[in-house]
Amino acid sequence: MVISGLFIETVPGRALFVAKELEKKNGVEVHHIEQDYKIIITMETDTADQSYQLGESFKEIDGIITICLVYSNFEEDPNCQLEADHV
């Protein structure tokens, strides 16, 4: 499981719309909306690659200006574990 926390900045006045669109995506949970342009979310996926692909899909949502990765924990990603076993 890969768990990531992200800060998303939207066009002012579009945060609620963007949050609703984000919540339609599997593995995304909206935690906080502030000043109608700041959003805090977490996303959960099985692998780091899936996490990257999910984050990339946010670019399709109208109104997003900035997507910032704040935290990511991918210790349980099977691909990362294979790499660690060979070191």
Structure description:
There is one protein chain. By secondary structure, the chain is of the alpha+beta class. The chain is built from three helices and four strands; from the N terminus they run βαββαβα. It has helices spanning 15-23, 48-57, 78-85, and strands at 2-10, 28-34, 38-45, 64-73. A four-stranded antiparallel β-sheet has the order 2-3-1-4. A hairpin with a 3-residue loop joins strand 2 (28-34) and strand 3.
Keywords:
87 residues; four-stranded antiparallel β-sheet; elongated
From the helix content, strand content and strand pairing, which structural class follows? alpha+beta
Figure out the total of helices: 3
Low-confidence stretches: none
SSE succession:
EHEEHEH
Note the overall shape: elongated
Overall pLDDT, averaged?
A: 90
- Bin the strand percentage: 35-45%
Number of strand elements: 4
> Mind summarizing the main beta sheet?
4 strands, antiparallel
Widest sheet, order of strands: 2-3-1-4
Structure, briefly:
By secondary structure, the protein is of the alpha+beta class.
SSE map:
Blueprint (H helix, E strand, L loop, with lengths): L1 E9 L4 H9 L4 E7 L3 E8 L2 H10 L6 E10 L4 H8 L2
Antiparallel strand pairs: 1-3, 1-4, 2-3
